[in-house]
UniProtKB/TrEMBL annotation:
This is Phosphonoacetate hydrolase. It comes from the Bacteria. InterPro entries: YjdM, YjdM_C, YjdM_N. Keywords: Hydrolase. One of its GO terms (molecular function) is hydrolase activity. It comes from Franzmannia pantelleriensis. The keyword Hydrolase applies. Residues 48-118 form the Protein YjdM C-terminal domain. Residues 4-32 form the Protein YjdM N-terminal domain. Pfam families: YjdM (PF03831), Zn_Ribbon_YjdM (PF08274). Belongs to the YjdM family. The keyword Hydrolase applies.
Length: 118
């Protein structure tokens, strides 16, 4: 017997297959295998550091280049360690795809190309 997927809405393991769709008896959610594949692709954010290593939420990174902080006279120096990054959707202007808090500067967004994973 093949294993059926858990319900994406409530996580129930008591799903069943009814023709072309899956159904959940606990919450009444209905979905197709195509919906399931599309949901998994949309929700994944991927960012790679300057060396090509995959970054994830909560990682610590080190800045590899002096970075000027826009709108300020502050500079983030080479070797500055940034703890607990968060992946975000990159903006169109600068491609900033990391949200973090830099000690001494505060919260800001960085581009993953200017950091390396610790």
């Amino acid at each position: 017997m093949s294993a059926l997927p858990n319900c994406p809405a409530c996580g129930s393991e008591f799903t069943y297959h009814d023709g072309i769709q899956y159904l959940c008896p606990e919450c009444g959610h209905e979905w197709t295998p195509d919906d399931e594949a599309a949901e998994g692709v949309e929700d994944v954010l991927e960012a790679r550091d300057a060396n090509g290593n995959l970054l994830a939420d909560g990682d610590s990174v080190t800045v590899i280049k002096d970075l000027k902080v826009k709108g300020s006279s502050s500079v983030i120096k080479v070797g500055t360690k940034v703890k607990s990054i968060r992946l975000i959707e990159g903006d169109a202007e600068g491609g900033h795809n990391l949200d973090c808090k830099v000690e001494g500067i505060g919260p800001l967004k960085l581009t993953s190309a200017f950091v390396k994973k610790v």
